[in-house]
Amino acid sequence: MTQSAFGVFLRKLRERRGLSLRELALLAKIDHAYVHRLETGEKEAPSDEALTRLTRALKTTKRDSELLRYLARHPNVSIGLAEYALEDQTVTPEELGMAANMAFRGPTRPDYRTAIERIRRMLGDEGLG
Asked: Which residues form a coiled coil (predicted)?
């Protein structure tokens, strides 16, 4: 099974906190094997309760919690976009959702920074009307 954006995002949040799989599982009161399956993409769509336990154990910001929930509900988001959103703390869940629905053409890696800038311009223009 290939990795998922949700799994990569979850793993990176865990690593940022300096927690092992077992430590996160203990704090969240979730089986460590289940956390591993979520991170590797073997399991998708965790329950709201599991997500709440994970975000509390990870002590995520409201934004990161919302992004993680979005990724759990939208398994087709690209890993690259999820990684970009994790690194650029200004990306909102709304912007992530809009960028996830954009079509990128060509053999090169999508330029997520430019995509987010375009979305922000578009959202700004809506406020002018």
From this structure: none
CA dist 114 and 76 (Å) reads 20
Number of separate domains in the chain = 1
CATH of the domain at 56: 1.10.260.40
Dist CA 34 CA 38 (whole Å):
6
Distance CA 7, CA 76 (A): 12
Of 18, 2, 25, 1, nearest to 79 (Cα)? 2
Question: Could you report the per-residue pLDDT of 69-120, keeping only the tens digit for each?
Answer: 999 999 989 999 999 999 999 999 999 999 988 876 666 678 889 889 989 9
Half-sphere exposure (CA, 13 Å, Cβ side) for 63? Answer: 13
Cα–Cα dist 115/121, whole Å: 10
Reported as type and span, the H/E element at residue 67 is helix 62-73
